[in-house]
Amino acid sequence: MTPTTYHHLPPGRAPGGQTRRSGSVETRNPVQVALATAPIAFAVIVIVLAPFEGPLRWAVAIGGAVALGLLARALKQRTAAVSAANHLAMRPSTDEPRRGEDLVVTLSVADPSKLRGDRLEVGLECIERYDYRQHQSSGSGGVGSSGGSSSRRVTRRDTVFAQWLPAQRSSAGETFTFPIPADAPFSHEGDCLSFSWMLTARERVPNGIDTRLDHPIWVRP
């Protein structure tokens, strides 16, 4: 069995309970997310609302769902290939800085001709993930109805720290310094609350998918 890859954790760092529940934490393009859910939505809409009956309805529902599924798979593969950004390289001074220290990062571009975006930048982000109970009511609540409620555990994500610096679009190595605030959260993998830190070099592509190279780090207290 292939082990699960946790995109937000550096090698050697074990995932906490929250991460193990949520699975691999990936950065997804909104269009990719929409296409991933489109096959089921399309099939349901056709089955419920299509003006035609019989085998034709099922053929359209299944055929459309399969086509959308193949499109979503192709987009996922394309995004993964673009996101690899193998023409970029980042070298931080350490993968385990402490709060209050400066993190020095060197960015180099192996082949500037492969740069696709109109802007290249390097950033440091801290992402908070926290669980909460989302309550839902069931039943119409009218006379004679039996209303009820249910809840499910949901993980929400917020950016609690971010700093982005512009980078040169050349093959010459460039150095950046990111001061890590002394009062910023340190890296933590919990059951209901987690903090992860990520170094990212990204190309901003107008009307397209940003190319990015991510490098997770572990910030110590």
Structure description:
The protein has 221 residues and is an alpha+beta fold. It has a domain at 86-217: Immunoglobulin-like (Sandwich). 25% of the residues lie in helices and 36% in strands. It has three helices and eight strands, in the order αααββββββββ. The protein has helices at 17-22, 30-49, 55-84, and strands at 88-92, 102-109, 119-138, 148-166, 174-179, 188-189, 193-204, 211-217. The strands form two sheets. Strands 3, 4, 6, 7 and 8 form a five-stranded antiparallel β-sheet that branches. α2 (30-49) runs antiparallel to α3. The radius of gyration is 22 Å and the shape is flat.
Tell me the number of strands.
8
CATH architecture of the domain at 86-217, by name, is: Sandwich
The general outline is flat
Q: Element order, helices and strands?
A: HHHEEEEEEEE
Coarse structural class: alpha+beta
Mean pLDDT: 80
Low-confidence stretches: none
The total of helices stands at 3
Please give the alpha-carbon distance between the first and last residues: 35 Å
Tell me the name of the CATH class of the domain at 86-217: Mainly Beta
> The biggest beta sheet, please?
5 strands, antiparallel
Radius of gyration: 22 Å
CATH topology of the domain at 86-217: Immunoglobulin-like
Proportion of residues in extended strands: 35-45%
In helices, the fraction of residues equals: 25-40%
